[in-house]
Each structure stands twice: as C-alpha cells, then as structure tokens.
Amino acid sequence: MLILINTLLDTPATCFGDQVLGHWKVEISQFKTPQNDRVDCDANFTTKKVKYFELRAPNVAIDEDGFYGTWTMGYIQAIQVRLGGLDYMWYFNYTETPLPEIKQIRVNTYCTQHLPTQAWVHEEGVAAPKHACIRATNVKPLLDNTTNETLKPAPGPVNDYFEVDGRQYQLIPIKLQKKVEYGRKKAPNEQPHASIYSGDTLPKNFDWRNVDGKSYVPSPFDQKKCACCYACATSYMMMSRYMVSLNTTEHPTFSVQHLLDCNEYSQGCEGGFGEHVGRFVEDHGILTEKDYGVYDGVQKECHAKDLQNAGRYYFTATQPLGGYYGAITDPVEMQWELFRYGPFAVSVEADLGYFDSFDPYGFDNSISLTDNNENRHYFYDEINHLVLLVGWVTEEITRNDVTKNETFWIIQNSWGKTWGPQKDGSMKIAMGYNSYGIESGPITTYYRPQGAFRPNIPVNIYKTTIVLGVMTGIFVIASVLFAVLLFQRKKKTVYEVE
Prior knowledge:
Number of helices: 6
Family: Belongs to the peptidase C1 family.
GO biological process, one term: proteolysis
Distance between the termini: 107 Å
Helix content: 10-25%
Pfam family, one: Peptidase_C1
GO molecular function: cysteine-type peptidase activity
Radius of gyration: 27 Å
C-alpha cells in the first residue's frame, strides 16, 4: 500500500512524441520578474506578442526567423522548447468524464493544445529571468490523430492498439508485462569497460556512498504519504553533485518543502517531474532547510518572498541524458555519466509485485512496435517513480544451474532509511535489461557555483549595423563641431592679446 501512496501521479494527460510535431502558434503575455518564486497564470491574459515555430523529429525546433533550438517531451504530459533565447513549457490539455458503471474515468487528451494556466515562457539563463504566460496551439499538426482516449487510473490507451503516422503501436498493460529472465540479454559486464571518449576505464564496482571511505550521498529521505518523489530524488541529485563538484563530503541540506510549496511547474503532493524541478531551480535557486524550513509532507503556501536575501544554490541543464526524452537508454553511457559527475535521478515503474519484493530483475515494460521499424523516434516506457542512482556492483550469480557475472544498478529510494532488502534505503536492479524501465528516463543536472548567467539573445545583425552607423555618425559630427568651436575660441584669445 505504501507504493500506491507514494508513486508519481501528475496529470492524467497522455501524448506521444509524433503527435506534437508540426507548426505551433504561441501567444505571450507581458514579461515580468517573478514574485515569491512563482509564476501563476491567468487564462485570460492580454497577448503582447505572438511567436511561431515548428517542431521536427526527433528534437529540432525552428522559429519563423530561422533560429533553431531543441525540444523534449516531459514524459507523456508536457513539452519544453528552448529556442531563440526563450524557454517555453506547457502541459497538454485534457478533459475527464466519469464512468460510474466501471468505476473509472475516461480521459481525453488534446495534444495540440496547452492546459489553461499551465503554460509559461522565460528568458534562458539562471537566476530569476523574466517570465510570461503563454497559450500554445499546434495550428498545423503533422499527424491527423492528435487526441488520445485513456482510462484513469488504468495506464495506456483504452484500445490495445493505436495508430501514429500510419504505424500501429501496442502498449503492454501491467498484467501482461513479462518477467526479465536471467541471462536474456548480454550483460554490460561482458562488454569492455573502456570509454569511447577517453583512455579511462570503468571499474567493475562503484558506489558514491563509499569512495575511499567517503560518502557523497546524503542519508535516505522519507517522503511519507506525499507523492513528491520527483522533488526528493532531484534535490538529492543536486546535493550529491554539489559534493562531487567541490570534492567535499559537506553539503547544504536543500529544502524539499521549498520545491513542494513554490514550484508551479509541478503538482505538489500529486506528482511532478525532475526536469521541471530543475527548471524551477534554474529560475530561483533552491533554498536550504535552515532558511526555508524542513519537510512537512504537505504542500503549503509559498513564503519565499520573505527570504530574498537567503542563500540560494543554482543548477543548470536539468534534462534527460542525451538532451531529450528517449534519446539515451545505453547503460554504459549512464555508467560514464554517473562515474564522472555523480549520482543522478532515474525513473522506475514501482509496481506492487516485483519492486516491493526487491526483485533485482523485475520486468521490461517497454512498448512493442508491431511493424519492427527501427528508424522511429517514437518512445515510451511506463514509469511512475523517481529514485537516485548511486552506483553499480558486479556479482557472480547462479540461477537455473548457470553461473555468470551480472552487473546491477544501485538505487537509493525516498521511502525511509530502513527500506530495501539490506534495510539501508537502497536496492539493486539488473543493468542492461531496462528492468522497471530504469534505463528509459535518466536525467542529469550540473552545479553552477558562479551563480547568475544569461546568454545573449540573438539579435538582427542588420539592425545592429544601422544603429552603430548612426551612433558613429553622431559622434563624428559632434567631434567636428567641437573642433570648430575650439578653433574659434583660440582665434579670439590671440586677437585680445595683440
């Protein structure tokens, strides 16, 4: 029952990568500096500017002026676009219809529309840049099918098969998920532990909780009955990466309550995503427990406006490993990121069968593609919980009379210090099988001790040249006039002396 309470809920929206491609129109309100670490939007705001851009596969965005940037899905519920010096984000619109006869709710998600009041844009950069509210509409979608019907709380579409861009896909309900069999895939430890980027070598065992007798991971957190695993795992990733970056085992204790109360990009105790926590921290910085307050397990009113002079810690590039959701599932790439930069957050499907019995193999819940098209960018794995990846271990395992080496991820959960088979807040998950979807959605972030930084927004070079030319001309004319006046003054002075 604990897992049901603590798993990630979020919005019930369901959209897929192919369904958001096309030409988007974005209406933008007046840009303002946020107050109290929040940007609360009115659906009836006055439009001050309109932008148009196209989203292409897999993560390319191009605006009407020819500037290009990137975009990523926020799982299946939101989207983020970085383009032309601006950072857009919105949740997808949906409606709910009660079905009392089956005790469920029908959810219709509209992948061409934003969710009212849940759509924002801000200037790119760190430390409270100016924000605005937006309305986002896909005015020319690439696909005809951009609406999905699902049942709540059941995952996935109502129909077993759904079609995207002329291709059929099948979601695997939890009841049909297949157990990961021992030795089903080639284990990563059988691959060379050597980097394709440098001459370094990965160790067979590595754990940030014990590096030469030192721990770079805070003690396990207990989120209690609040579904805020997304805030716990992300803040712990930030504390760990702070320590790794500065090569210290001392760290400020970041306030999960600050993230819970003030972050408009998440749903408080009803769920959220680590990437959106990172977006909030880029905007405002994260406060410590000493300044903001300790965790209460309940979302409260944000009081950050009273703490403007408190110390804030900034992190940047909180995003899926590889830059966009679905880009990276290679476990060796994940190992290198972990080894070089410190613990990071990963998503899992915390089901009530394998996970709560600490089965390291679990199941592979990847979507199956019926036409075997390997060139697709479509990507989806069912996940509902965010945890912290802290290391890996290689062990000799014997199962079914077969002995071999197997490598396991080590995760630290946020369900208390005594959770897990070793009663230390952690468990092992087999590497290279995508067990519980652990290799489907890793996210990273990087500590920025320099503090605030905002890149130069692209400017029109022709306008810039004209402005500089006019300013130069004014300077030349002023210089000539000054020289003439000075010459006249000298002539008068000479005459008076004579």
